[in-house]
Write a structure and sequence with these properties.
Elements: E1 5-9, H1 16-29, E2 33-39, H2 44-48, H3 57-74, H4 77-84, E3 89-94, H5 98-106, E4 111-115, H6 129-136, E5 141-144, E6 156-160, H7 165-180, E7 183-190, H8 196-211, E8 216-222, H9 232-245, E9 250-254, H10 268-276, E10 281-284
Parallel strand pairs: 1-2, 1-4, 2-3, 4-5, 6-7, 6-9, 7-8, 9-10
Antiparallel strand pairs: 5-10
Length: 285
């Protein structure tokens, strides 16, 4: 597996150049293609249902302003990629809201690179773009933090492993990065008395990764609290602390969704990391 097509979200974030740089570095490593997408925020369904009349002069002015704002997000994208040496790229302005539009575009890519939600920009539901695309896009996300420098190449990787389906998907999605890394730590937060089956499963995933040429070591740590479902935010904090201790450049983990009302509210570990991480996160659901 390799990242032959990478999608990067373009907006007016002050961290956009950092996001594009990281996406371009990954595309170059796999001789891949990078697609930059800026969203206008104009819901696609509104066009389909006939709710938008572009002949209305007031509405037309508003639509033009939205498209101009999306166009500003594209400014400098091609020039930055050319300067980095990436020749295979394209860019688009898409009429759609950010969550739905990126989720649809994601299905034509191997990886989506997106920014961390900035504090004060949108509420828990409307502002959590990464969480929405994670749950609806069908592709792994690389979330670039809003603070701190994203070091490239991503040589030291921390993998959060709990033996679950989402963690397995994240490991598979991260294989191109894991194979290139010089240090891969597989973090397992174990109960005080782990069972023989748990130890065998941990050994099996280590063996599986080594067969793929990954230089992986198991890092067993005591669970931060009893009843992890009730204290999952502590697991997220413990992962961030371990990433700092190991000088990790990237954290790989599975993402969990639990909302019955809307699949946009994520489990405590995922939520903590999406909001507080200061290193890039590769997440799969």
């Amino acid at each position: 597996m390799s990242y032959k097509t990478i999608l990067v979200h373009l907006d007016e974030s002050p961290r956009l150049a950092e996001r594009v740089r990281l996406a371009a570095t990954l595309a170059l490593a796999d001789q891949g293609h990078l697609i930059g997408v800026a969203l206008t925020g104009i819901a696609r369904l509104a066009y389909r249902d006939g709710h938008i009349d572009e002949q209305d002069p007031h509405l037309a002015l508003h639509l033009n302003l939205l498209r101009e704002r999306a166009g500003r997000a594209l400014a400098g994208f091609a020039a930055q990629l050319d300067a980095l040496g990436l020749r295979s790229h394209e860019q688009h302005v898409v009429d759609d809201d950010a969550g739905t539009g990126l989720s649809r575009q994601a299905r034509h890519a191997d990886l989506v690179v997106i920014g961390q939600r900035q504090p004060g920009r949108g509420g828990a539901l409307l502002g959590d773009l990464a969480g929405h695309v994670l749950l609806h896009g069908g592709r792994p996300l690389l979330v670039v933090p809003d603070s701190g420098a994203s070091r490239v190449p991503l040589e030291r990787v921390l993998v959060a492993w709990d033996g679950g389906r989402e963690a397995a998907r994240a490991v598979t999605a991260a294989l191109p990065l894991l194979r290139r890394a010089v240090q891969v730590d597989l973090a397992v937060f174990a109960p005080a008395e782990p069972g023989a089956d748990d130890a065998a499963a941990d050994a099996a995933i280590v063996a599986h990764l080594r067969r793929h040429g990954v230089a992986v070591e198991l890092l067993a740590r005591p669970a931060p609290a009893s009843g992890l479902l009730r204290h999952s935010d502590q697991v997220g904090a413990a992962l961030l602390a371990l990433a700092a201790e190991r000088h990790s450049d990237l954290l790989v983990m599975g993402g969990y969704g639990h909302s019955r009302l809307r699949e946009i509210l994520l489990g405590g570990v995922t939520r903590t990391l999406l909001e507080q991480a200061t290193l890039p996160l590769l997440i799969a659901h």
